[in-house]
């Protein structure tokens, strides 16, 4: 991306400003000379005055330089002038003093053979001596603590804090960037961020604007921080507010850098268009499934279930939970609602078990589409099918469930059960949805072989209305990897954007706790901690915190999230100095004179300071800055790997319909 002439202006501005003291000195010198020199030859003045003025002209250049330096120091201390311009003023003083010394040397050197320097010192020009002495003194002041060596009036983020040596209030600190690069080396992994401190950049006080490269600072030019899936559970959590660059800083860079299989849930439907070319350049086969695209195809979400294995019934129960929802039955209630919901799930389980175990049915026909056709037969036909299942099915589970369902005496009772079952699976009647979970674009065996990348392009509104569709797809893919029992060529990354839209899904918890040894790594993207808590509950959130190998927080807009992150980062002790001064007056009885007294004191105490407060997280952190937490290490404050400002990524990403 071309940045035009603006970076050149930014680089050249300090040097142009450094010319200001030189120009100011030249203008002041010229004005003083034009005013004073004519007086040295004015016959109206007494001879002794003309002599004094003529002698003083020698030091006028230095005097003008000292005036300019004094002004520059005042401006520098109040942050109205930078260090380079102040150094230029010091240079002018040094140059003019050197010229005066050179002139004196040239004037006195002819008498050097006859007289020593000590004897010649009696002939030094008084004006020259005063000028050079003043230049040395003020120059030393300018270079010392009272000048440029002293911190200027600080901004809030530059305010020095005097840390104590004790750990009474903790010892929290940011992880040094060298250590962060050692923990997260750029070796082709899940992209976490960039190895630099945004808060120490020259543009730290300027809000990040993706459309203005002048606000990017050093972002996009620093080494990557990448997680290589070699610690803990390998799973990651990303929390960033709406419009917080989750896609551009995590999803896209990871798709460009991850060398092995990756399954992406993409409600925005933009990642495939942006990264397919780059994935294919790695020799990967890329497949998209999209309910809105008739040409996108789908896969059979039941093909991983092997009816000959003892856990087949449990696998079928898992599919039913994805279809109907793990929390489909009302919790904590009794009565007709709970009864009809649970029996409706039993009817689904019965028909699906019979379908999977049916030896006469071709494997290509063993799909959820076939299951829906059987379920949506007339109520009388379903009753007849249950009778056949009870007597002839190869599934013991199906036979048992059919027997209990057949014994429903009242037609109204069975009608309620049947209505619940059809309602829970209604989404399978949508042709686009049924095609996604019953298609032939690929088989799960191909995924296990390790050369397939999959984009699940389910629009956000479909995810909200029909979360079961994504649950079934993601669940089938996760279980397909499980069934391989570790016999996989590499790790499989499940990159789930808007993971909260899946709602509660027990299989995600199973993958969280046991997925590492099966080669499963999940990266879940959320807008806030509240989404994670609503999906899995408060205890579930703690379990995710305990299990995640890394967590990233950026663009925080939620006060509760900010408070929690602030507590996670910890506290440390600082010295707080308090100064007091008091004066008073009193008069003793019988005396007309008043007595005065004064006292002053200073108190130093150790107080607690948050490493970063909630308001600093919400209001002072830039959108391209984040905090990364890894168990057992100090938090990392670093940049975000926003792809469109990195030259090594720009050419790999294709345009899409979104900006």
Describe this entry's structure for a reader.
The protein has 659 residues and is of the alpha/beta class. Among the domains are: 138 residues, no CATH class; 141 residues. The protein has 24 helices and 13 strands. The radius of gyration is 39 Å and the shape is elongated.
Helix amount: 40-55%
Structural class: alpha/beta
How many strand segments? 13
**For the terminal residues, how far apart are their CA atoms?**
15 Å
Beta-strand portion reads 5-15%
- What is the average per-residue confidence, as pLDDT, rounded to a whole number? 86
Largest sheet: 9 strands, mixed
Overall shape: it is elongated
Helix count from the secondary structure assignment: 24
- As residue ranges, the low-confidence spans are 151-156, 328-333
Radius of gyration: 39 Å
Biggest sheet strand line-up: 5-6-4-7-8-3-9-12-13
- Quaternary status of these chains? single chain
Describe the structure in brief:
47% of the residues lie in helices and 13% in strands.
């Amino acid at each position: 991306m071309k940045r035009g002439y603006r970076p050149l202006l930014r680089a050249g501005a300090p040097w142009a400003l450094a010319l200001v003291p030189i120009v100011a000195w030249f203008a002041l010198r010229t004005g003083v000379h034009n005013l004073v020199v004519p007086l040295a030859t004015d016959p109206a003045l007494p001879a002794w005055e003309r002599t004094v003025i003529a002698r003083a002209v020698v030091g006028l250049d230095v005097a003008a330089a000292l005036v300019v330096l004094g002004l520059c120091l005042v401006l520098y201390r109040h942050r109205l002038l930078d260090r380079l311009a102040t150094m230029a003023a010091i240079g002018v003083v040094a140059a003019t003093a050197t010229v005066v010394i050179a002139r004196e040397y040239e004037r006195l050197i002819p008498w050097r053979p006859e007289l020593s320097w000590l004897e010649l010192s009696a002939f030094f020009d008084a004006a020259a001596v005063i000028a050079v002495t003043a230049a040395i003194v003020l120059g030393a002041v300018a270079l010392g603590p009272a000048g440029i060596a002293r911190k200027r009036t600080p901004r809030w983020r530059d305010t020095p804090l005097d840390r104590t040596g004790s750990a009474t209030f903790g010892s929290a600190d940011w992880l040094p960037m060298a250590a962060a690069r050692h923990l997260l080396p750029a070796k082709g992994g899940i992209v976490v961020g960039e190895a630099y401190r945004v808060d120490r950049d020259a543009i730290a006080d300027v809000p990040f604007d993706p459309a203005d490269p002048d606000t990017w600072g050093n972002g996009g030019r620093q080494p990557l921080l990448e997680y290589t899936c070699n610690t803990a559970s390998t799973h990651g959590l990303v929390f960033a507010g709406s419009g917080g660059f989750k896609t551009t800083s995590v999803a896209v860079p990871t798709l460009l850098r991850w060398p092995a299989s990756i399954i992406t849930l993409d409600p925005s439907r933009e990642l495939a268009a942006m990264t397919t070319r780059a994935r294919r350049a790695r020799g990967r086969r890329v497949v998209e499934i999209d309910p809105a695209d008739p040409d996108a195809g789908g896969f059979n979400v039941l093909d991983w279930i092997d009816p000959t294995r003892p856990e087949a019934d449990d696998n079928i129960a898992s599919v039913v939970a994805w279809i109907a929802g793990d929390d489909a039955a009302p919790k904590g209630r009794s009565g007709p609602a709970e009864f009809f919901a649970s029996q409706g799930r039993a009817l689904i389980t019965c028909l699906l078990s019979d379908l999977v175990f049916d030896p006469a049915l071709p494997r290509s026909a063993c799909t959820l589409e076939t299951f829906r056709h059987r379920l949506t037969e007339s109520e009388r036909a379903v009753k007849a099918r249950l009778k056949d299942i009870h007597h002839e099915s190869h599934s013991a589970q199906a036979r048992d469930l059919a027997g209990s369902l057949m014994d429903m005496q009242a037609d109204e009772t069975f009608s309620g059960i049947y209505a619940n079952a059809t309602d829970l699976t209604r989404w399978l009647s949508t042709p686009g949805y049924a095609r996604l979970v019953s298609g032939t674009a690929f088989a799960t065996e191909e995924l296990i072989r390790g050369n397939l990348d999959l984009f699940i392009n389910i629009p956000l509104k479909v995810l909200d209305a029909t979360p079961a569709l994504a649950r079934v797809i993601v669940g089938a893919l996760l279980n397909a990897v499980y069934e391989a029992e570790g016999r996989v060529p590499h790790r499989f990354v499940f990159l789930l954007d808007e993971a909260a839209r899946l709602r509660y899904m027990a299989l995600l918890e199973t993958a969280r706790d046991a997925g590492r040894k099966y080669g499963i790594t999940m990266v879940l993207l959320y807008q806030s901690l509240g989404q994670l808590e609503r999906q899995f509950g408060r205890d579930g959130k703690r379990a995710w915190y305990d299990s995640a190998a890394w967590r990233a927080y950026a663009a925080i807009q939620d006060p509760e999230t900010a408070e929690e992150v602030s507590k996670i980062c910890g506290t440390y002790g600082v010295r707080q100095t308090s100064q007091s001064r008091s004066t008073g007056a009193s008069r003793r009885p019988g005396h007309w004179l008043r007595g005065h007294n004064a006292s002053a004191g200073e108190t130093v105490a150790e107080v607690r300071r948050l490493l970063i407060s909630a308001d600093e997280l919400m209001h002072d952190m830039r959108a391209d800055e984040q905090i990364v937490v890894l168990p057992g290490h100090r938090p990392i404050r670093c940049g975000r790997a926003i792809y469109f400002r990195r030259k090594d990524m720009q050419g790999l990403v294709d345009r899409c319909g979104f900006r």
